[in-house]
Amino acid sequence: MATDTYEITANAKINLFLRVNGTLPNGYHRLYTVMQEIDCADQLTIRIDPSRSGFKINCFGRNDIDPRKNLCRKASDRFYSNLKKIKGDDFKPPYTEIDLIKNIPSESGLGGGSSDAAAVLVVLQEHFGQPFSEEELLHIAVNVGADVPFFLYGGTCLCERVGEVIQPIESMAGLGVLIGKPKAGVSTPECFALMDLEEQKPFDEKAYSDYVGSLNVHFRNNSDRLEKLLARTDLLVNDLETPAIRLVPEIEALKTAFTNAGAEYCCMSGSGSAVFALFENRGDAAAALQQVQDVQALADCSLYLSETV
Ligand code: C5P
After folding, report:
1. What is the CA(190)–ligand 1 centre distance, in A?
2. pLDDT at residue 61, as a whole number
3. Does the global pTM surpass 0.70?
4. Is the separation of the CB atoms in 69 and 25 below 8 Å?
């Protein structure tokens, strides 16, 4: 039998805001966040050969990735073990080999590993003729990682609980994005643990659902998108930012530099350490990139130009 080859792009995400609303019985935190896909991307080539068994992942572009801990492996393992439940014990997972070209920085809060994992699930779901319902695939996804379900949808989504309750909302596509990533990353569990030691800001569920409702309308253009997004700057908060800044102080320096360069809005993404700044278009983000390139306080940070999609 021939090998089937699939090419797939795995985009990153930013969290336009991220609120933590208590903890769930399993110890995970209950999130309320709007995730936005951006065009900073990893590239995957997935080869499936049913004539033999095994798994291999080849990472290109960086040497700090441990192939054994990569979420693509976890995604394929979870997919095949669930498929076995449908097909019976005779089902033998085919040899699966993944070439992964990494561009999205790790430990950045940009969801690179989760997006790669979602891409694997999407390809396997297609290869095997859609064996799982949307709900079943979401369940497999959230067991691979909290941010994986979002990447099955992409675009602009309100994500709740661990991240598996997802509502796509009106697209925020076309905004310019400037990203800064300090050399040091932030460990997600460490960041949540540090946050737990601090007093939490109250979470006004009604204010947030009204706000998200006001973003789920037709936008005339990018200026209208930004105006509606920035109408409630008091709600544009990432609860993980303060603990992350304690772990990686450059996050603060990035926010200051991006604000001075004319960002409409800037915030840390996820549990960091990447900071994003929004602009009306890619050109404005490129102009800001020029301005911050020589800022001494950012000497150890990597800068990326991107766009919401
Ligand atoms: O699911 P994921 O591997 O992305 O999460 C990493 C860690 O972050 C979890 O083990 C948990 O400690 C923390 N986490 C959390 N609440 C969430 C998501 C992640 O406490 N909603």
Report:
1. 10
2. 77
3. yes
4. no
